Amino acid sequence: MSGSLRTYLEDPFLGRLWQRIRAAGPIRSVSLDITHRCNLRCTGCYYFEEGMDRFHTAEAEAALDRWIERERARGTNFVTIVGGEPSLVLHRLEKLYAHFRLSVATNGLRRIPFEGFEELPIGISLWGNADTDRQLRGSGKVDVFRKALDNYRNDERAFWYYTVAPGLAHEVEEVVARCIDNGNRVLFNYYSDLAGKGGALDYRQGFERVREVIDRLIDRYPDRILTTAWFNQVVTSGRLFDQQWGYEVCTNLSTNYAPNAERLKNGQPYNRHFRAYNADFETVRRCCTGIDRDCASCFDTWEHFSWIMIHMKKHMANVHYFTCWLATMYMFYFITRLVPRDEGAALLPELHRRVKTAMQAADAPVST
To answer: What is the model's pLDDT at position 3?
Structure first.
């Protein structure tokens, strides 16, 4: 069934999602490393694998003030905060929170206080069950998962940013149950193995089993899972209609980074405002998570959200694909608190149900 946007939006549920997104307005986003320091050295962390921590300055506070002035003048209204570990520099986070809408990624060892950050979306990194997470992130000694659970129990700002390795699908149900029992929601990411450990961590074996488990968990916890089945399919397969994921189609590339110039001329869309800033608050790099790494190893959630979101036209062929696009778009806005939180939480079960039904009708396979 084909149609127009007007006919698609005659469905009251789709119309409601669309109106909320429209009311939130356009996103003019950048990514910022708020510090080069971290209190962990996680195995395969993109930040340290490519030596991004070498970008810093002794005049960081003044440099950040200048950065804020420049980005406000440029029209930036949303900043994804990474690093480094943001909880180590709360005074910088306060400055940014006062001027922009934010989303922050943290390892969870130190709690970002509620007071002063009441509407801050906080993604807590997690790489597996207690044993796996201890080995990959805690150097075999620190139970990072437990500490983060304690820090963010029943914290409505917080969601788990759970990075699943392809050979560890058997851990997912246990981990998700623990996160939900802690009073939090879960967004999935997918492990890249930049440290080259291989085995269960090797992304080249594919994420089919992980995809199946996540789809089952969406059915089980539709009010707590922040990954749509369409998003899960696109990221784990590396396919979006006729496109294969990689540098030539990635949409979150620094537009003022000279080596990207040829890519930006190839006709594939990209976010024209986007820049990924290093922790010196001056220089930029190729993209959110890389300098020279092979993009085949990138399963970054934010970059894949952007890939889907920017391709509305590819999803207009029928109402089924449009539903997948709109629901995934709305999910991003919900995660980042750009739409009303309570309303969004109430809509999640129906949103997931609509996506699964749409994918089945469009013959886009989901797990059963």
So the answer is: 74
